[in-house]
Amino acid sequence: AATGGDADGGSTPPASLIGTTLDHFKIESLLGRGGMGEVYAATDTSLDRRVAIKVLRPEVTAEPHMIERFSREARAQARFNHPNIVHIYYIGRRPTEEGPDSLFFAMERVGGGDLEDALADGQTMSAEEARQAMIQVAQGLRAATRAGVIHRDIKPSNLMVGEDGVIKIADFGLAKPMDGDSAITQDGALVGSPYYIAPEQAVGEELDLRADMYSLGATFHHLVVGKPPYEGPRPMAVIAKHLSEDLVPLAKSAPHVPRRLAHVIERLLEKKRDKRYPDYNALIADLEAAAPRARAHAPFGTRAAAALGDFVLAGIMIGAFGWMGLLLYLLIVTIGHGWRGQSPVQFLLGIEVRRDDGAPVGWLRGAARTLLSLWMPIIAAVTIALSSGVPELLSTMEGLRAESLEDLQGILIAAGVSHGFLTVIYFVGLVVALFHPETKAVHDMLLGTHVVYRLKRGVVADHRRASTASFASTSTKLEKLAKRLESRDADEPSSGDSPPPD
Fold first, then answer.
1. What residues does CATH 1.10.510.10 cover in the chain?
2. Would the CA dihedral through 297, 302, 304, 309 be positive or negative?
3. Which member of 6, 153, 171, 444 is catalytic?
C-alpha cells in the first residue's frame, strides 16, 4: 500500500533509507515496495506531521523527459484538495551514487491500509459497502478529471482506507495529463495492472476518463466477487481476455449483488468505451439510485390476506379449468416470484418476497417457495395419487370444475367449511410469522426469504432515511476495516504495490 499504516521498522530494504533524512523528512520505517520504488513512513520535521515518502527507482527517472513528466504531474496533483484523494505535499530529488538523481514524493499518510489488504484475508466487500466506496472513488476521480488528470492505475492497492473509514485514491504520481501521451512505459511494459487495465490502455490508444472507469469497474468486480473479471497465467493472457473475452454476468458470478449495482459494474466493464458512462456525474447518479430501497417487513395481517387471496385465486382457476387450472396457477405464481418476487395477490397488496441478502428470489427459489407454501394441497394430491392412482386424482380435480358462478361459489364455501380443519393446518406455517420478529413463515425460514413492502421510487422520505442509515452503517464498517488493517500492519510490513502476474 502506497501510504499505509506503520510497518515493522526492523524490516530493512536492500538499499535502506531508514534513519536518514531527505530534505526535511526523517525516514522512519518501510511501508512497502513496488515496481516503481519504495514507500517509507516519515516525519515532516518542518511541520511536525506524519507523511509517507515514495522514492522512485533511479532507472524509472533515468531520462530527463521522465523527470519533467513526473514533476509536472505531481504539481498537478498538489493542486487537488479533495477528501477522496491522497494529497501530495512535496516533490524533491535524492542524489544517488550509481547515476542520475532519483525523485521522491512526500504524501499524506493514511493510517488504515488499503482495500487489497482486505482481499488478502480471503474476504470480499458486501454489495452496499462496495456501492458506498465506489461513490467515494468516483467523486475523487471526478475531481481529478476536472483538473485534467487521468489516474491510469486504479486498483485495490491504490485505494486507501483512512482511520475514519474514508476511501482515498493514492499514487496519482503515475497519472497523466489528459492532453499528454497515452502511455508511460518502462522496459517495454505498460504502466498499469493487467488485472484492471482498460482495453484501450492496453493497446496504447489515446485515453480519457473512461479508462479509469473501466479500472474502477474491474476493481470493484474483484472486491464483490472475490476475483478480478479476467485471470490468466501471464500478463498478456489477462490483457487478451480484457480485449476479447465476454464478462461473466454478475448474476452468475455474484448473485448476492443487487441487479442495479451489478448493472453499474457491468457497464463500467464494457469493452467499447462509448458504452460506458459519459462522465462521473452520470456514474454517481446511477450508484446513488442503486441504494437499497426503504423496506418494512410486511405485517402478519397483510401476509395472511395475501395467502387467503392466493387460496381463493387457486380455487377460482381450478373451478374454471380443473386440473389445468391448478397447473396454470402454479405457473403464474412461480413466474411472478421469479420475475418480480410477487404473486398476483401480493402485487395488488404492494408486498414482495426477497432473499435475506437482498437479492431477487430467482426462478429456482421461487418454484421451491411456491411448492412449500402449498404443502397441504400437494400432500392431499399425493395421497390420492398413491392410494387411488393418478387417473383418480385427475378425476377428483375435474370434479371441482364449476359449470356456473353458483357452482364456483359453492366450491369455495365447501372448501372453507367442510375442510376448515385442513385449512387451519395449511396456515400453520404462515401463523409462525405472527410470532417471528421479521414475520417469517416456515417456508421463508427454509428458503432464506422474507416478505416486505414494495415501495415505489416516489416514497422519497423513507428512501432518504434508508440511504442515510445505510451510509452511517457502511462508514462504521469501513472504520472497523481500517482499524483492523492498521492493527495487522503493526505486526507485519505491507507488501506494497502488487506486481503483475509473472
1. 21-293+480-489
2. negative
3. 153
All cell numbers assigned to 199:
482495453
Q: What are the φ and ψ backbone dihedral angles of 94, each rounded to 5 degrees?
A: -120, 115
434 contact partners, CB below 8 Å, separation of at least 6: 300
**What is the fold of 21-293+480-489?**
Transferase(Phosphotransferase); domain 1 (1.10.510)
Distance separating alpha carbons of residues 458 and 234, to the nearest angstrom: 50
Give the whole-angstrom CA distance, residue 377 versus residue 379. 5
User: How many CB atoms lie under 10 A from the CB of residue 321?
Assistant: 18
**pLDDT tens for residues 37-73?**
788 999 999 999 999 998 887 777 777 776 776 776 6
Q: What cell numbers appear for 142 in the block?
A: 471526478
Record the pTM: 0.62
**Cα separation, 185 vs 453, whole angstroms:** 55
Assigned C-alpha cell, 458 = 416516489
Is 153 designated active site? yes
In whole angstroms, what is the distance from residue 361 CA to residue 461 CA? 26
What is the C-alpha to C-alpha distance for residues 11 and 374, in angstroms, rounded to an integer? 65
How far apart CA 351 and CA 295 sit, in angstroms, is: 10
Model confidence over 426-462: pLDDT tens digits?
Answer: 555 555 656 666 666 666 666 666 666 555 443 333 4
| Buried b / exposed e along 381-419 (16+ C-beta atoms within 10 A) | beebeeeeeeeebbebbeebbbeeeeebeebbeebeeee
Cα separation, 29 vs 33, in Å, equals: 12
